[in-house]
Amino acid sequence: MSVADIKEFSLLVGFAKAFATRKGDTTLQPRHFVAALWLAGRKGLLKAAPTLEAHIKAHGDAIAVLLREADFGDIESVCEPVSPDVKLTLDETLKAFITQANLKDDSLIEFVDQLVRPGLQLNNLESVAYHEAGHAVVSLLLRPEIRLGRATIEQEGNAAGSVSFVEREPRASQEDFLERLCIAIAGQVSQVRKFGAGAADAGAISDFRNATLVAWDYITRFGLDPQFGPVILDALKEREVTSGWIFDEAQRRLQAVLKEAQAKTAVIVDTHWDKVERVAQLLLEKKSVSEEEIRCVVIL
Length: 300
What we know:
Elements (H helix, E strand, L loop, with lengths): L6 H17 L3 E2 L1 H13 L7 H9 L1 H10 L19 E2 L1 H9 L6 H36 L4 E6 L9 E5 L7 H22 L9 H17 L11 H6 L6 H27 L1 H14 L1 E3 H8 L2
Helix pairs in contact: 1-2, 2-4, 4-6, 6-7, 6-11, 7-8, 7-10, 8-10
């Protein structure tokens, strides 16, 4: 079965032609089809191909980032596919994709992968690089005395990348807690600063889990939050007080403190964005870098 014989392919061709025509291109190129895939998925026009629809939905945010970088503007302003009568030449890359997708009944999925996967892989790697660069730069700015181990964007277990620290014993001071929160949050803040709100993903779950525990200790275990006051909830639990308004207030302060840390981190990242950019590019070039290499580009 040829991918060109699949009904959904004709729909995608129509939208791809619409994008090409709007941009004044005389040949159909892979980027036009990527935009068509995204738009057809958004419009709910792939219901007859549920596997393809799920595939596009899973990668929708990343595809949108790729299209913004390709300067496609307001993608959803394309309302209707162009008539099949409109003739546009296929460029050589697209011809090769269509030929290679001539393999099996679900070849449209394979076709989609060949169009989108290289860009997604690069985008994902860049996203990891900016995420880890955010952790490293904010740590060096807020806690220059803390040694970094190394930063990497190479897969290690379930982690797409990491920054390791040669930790000292935490001071357990108000300043130390707040710095640790900012560093934990800095990865996704940098990722979103570079790629937009759609780039936020579940990859930061371990960072957020750590930040939540640090903030909870700050508020309820050490009594350091000035708004909550010097209250140690564990002491109340010793008197079998385990619920009530003060526990509710602690939870409200937990969310507030994390949001405050996020806002502070965004200011730091914006102010020192050139440093984040340099560390991210270094990571993309070398994959793993030492503290000395990071300090060299941060202190320039």
